[in-house]
Amino acid sequence: MRTSRAGRAGQYAALLAYLVFLAFPFLWLVSTAFKPPRELASLHPTWIPKDPTLANFRQAFDEQPLLDAALNSLAAALGTAVVAVVLATPMAYVMARRRTRLARAATGWVVVSQAFPLVLVIIPLFLVLKNLRLIDSMTGLVMVYVVWALPFALWMLVGYVRAVPRELEEAAAVDGAGRLRTLVSVTAPLLAPGLVATALFAFVTAWNEFFFALVLLKTPEKQTLPVVLTHFIGAEGVADLGPLAAAAFLATLPSLVVFALIQRRITGGMLTGAVKS
């Protein structure tokens, strides 16, 4: 009994330490965003600003087109979410219902694709988009984001599809419904929680992405929010810390809100995918 309690206490202590480790950057970001320049330059920084101010937020909007960049990020994220769900739903249905070599190969691709670093694919990807004349284009960026989000979206949706009883689809087939009609009218409505979770995951992925947007978008008016945040760092690497923290805090809020909405859905998808039908 004592060993069990000690082990449980150790687990809670490790979990608490991990939560503190994760929360530290965000809490420090919030604290920095509200500090005046005098406190930012202090040799003895404090967690809570002694004289909180909104000047950093005003300066951030004055120095950089944050609103336009946020709209660009929103357009890319929404486009990615919609296209990824539309493409992933029938693909996940086939992978879940047909245990063929092709389905197994697709499952292997889902796993292996997550191991490729971005640097490895950026040059051939750039050349392909250049030939298609999609460099410096929101359409090209959304295409890249969709391809990058599809593997995880498929992995999530396959678990949800396997949780749908086959008997419902068999009953629809007896009534004369084809595969497409069954997917649209029977399976898809039951996948609503999974579709929402997948769409929100794709949205967050595209909203936070930096590397592809930096390489593929050249026109300042088309740049997304993560790229614009780098403009607060000068040529010599000196950051305008207060406005940068304020802008980063505002850019982080949508991701936090969306993740708070989908974290239970994601966990449910993981558990559902672990259960064999």
UniProtKB/TrEMBL annotation:
Keywords: Cell membrane, Membrane, Transmembrane, Transmembrane helix, Transport
CDD domains: TM_PBP2 (cd06261)
InterPro entries for the chain: BP-dep_ABC_trans_perm, MetI-like, MetI-like_sf
Membrane topology reported for the UniProt record: Multi-pass membrane protein
Main localization (coarse): membrane
Location within or outside the cell: Cell membrane
Presence of keyword DNA repair: no
Protein family per UniProt: Belongs to the binding-protein-dependent transport system permease family.
Protein name from the UniProt record: Carbohydrate ABC transporter permease
